[in-house]
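Margin note: ligand = nicotinamide-adenine-dinucleotide.
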Amino acid sequence: MAIHSARSETLGPDAIEERVSSTAVSLGKRRYRVLIGEGLLKQLGALVRQHLHRKTCAIISDKRVAPLFAKHVKESLASAGFRPTLITIAAGEKSKTLEQAGAICDQMIAAGLDRQSFVIGLGGGVVGDISGFVAAIYHRGIPHVQIPTTLLAMVDSSIGGKTGMNTRDGKNLIGAIHHPSLVIDDTDVLKTLPRREFNQGFAEIIKHAIIGDRKMFEALKVARAFWPAAAGETHALESLIKRNIEIKSKIVAKDERDQIGERALLNFGHTVGHAIERAGDYRRFLHGEALSLGIVAACAISIKRAGLSPDQRDAIVGLLRQFELPTRLPKNFRREKILGALKFDKKFKGGKVRFVVTPKIGSAKLSRDVTLDDIHEAVAQL
Ligand SMILES: NC(=O)c1ccc[n+]([C@@H]2O[C@H](COP(=O)([O-])OP(=O)(O)OC[C@H]3O[C@@H](n4cnc5c(N)ncnc54)[C@H](O)[C@@H]3O)[C@@H](O)[C@H]2O)c1
Ligand SMILES: [Zn+2]
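Resulting structure:
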């Protein structure tokens, strides 16, 4: 696994790309580039052309994102000689179904797309997951270009190749691992993201800091607002996105298929976080908000089972609050619903859980000592 970063001003045959900040993710023989910067959508066609010598593609987007960016994306692709077909789905989690994936495939067939075509996902994590899944199954797999438009998708879901579909019984139970051929993170698109959606991305960023980067944790504590409308903060935001991609891809490279426990570290805060999301019927909390609460619970458990100091727990809670994330459950929220939802977790075996704990900020490990009672206690304290 190697991560290469570059910001070069040299003009050469690949001049456009060389002026863009980028990170390359390498997984065994596979390697893909993540381009990060302002105004990348304007040069999208030329950027994609440097990586894919194909003609036809589907742009998959949702009904909130498409009106904002799809016209420019289509025009830029067409001017670089591509023939794009735009397919839009309803915004939100309810679109991540096999039925929806099948309907997209039908539209792609009707548009004459074949195994020489490729798929572009233009949207947040929902679009990233469904477009990646479609790319994985269409003609048994065609290339996927990710254009994440939420902070969460840039720092998390667009990296790692997981594509999850929901079923009646739970989230992300069906999917495929299908890595993108190219990821394009245009920080300009974040300007239209509602503030609450923007902030939820910081829950994953803070999670990355806790499990793997003490320095980033300290830097976030003194960071000024990252809100993209704040002038002069774009470069700080770009480096932050890049650093998070590096942390996630390094972990994924060690354990691509989630087999040795390394990739599981990325689930820090998620056992309780997912249960809270489910208990709120996926409406009350955004994923990052539920994760924030899950991180607080994981800290309480880490104090008991991994020797985390209460001071460090307080620093973590303080940082989550700094980014306007919840750290206490609303008073009237029925905690029993969370405990009920925990039963759906795949990780529960005979009352014991594979639970990710942090002994100190910047490190994490899997513990087998955590009991359901520990979790109940942590939830009761939230
Ligand atoms: N595959 C993975 O590894 C992985 C990792 C983490 C999360 N996920 C998945 O990601 C999903 C959550 O992602 P998300 O938080 O990006 O949700 P999302 O895709 O639902 O986007 C959130 C909302 O913001 C809107 N939006 C997106 N970009 C916008 C923009 N630039 N301006 C204005 N509005 C915009 C969307 O239309 C949507 O309504 C979940 O389904 C989760 O399971 C996958
Ligand atoms: Zn998450």
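The pocket of nicotinamide-adenine-dinucleotide (ligand 1) is lined by residues 62, 64-65, 68, 91-93, 96, 123-127, 129, 149-150, 152-153, 156-157, 160, 162-164, 171-172, 189, 192-193, 197, 287 (CB under 6 Å).
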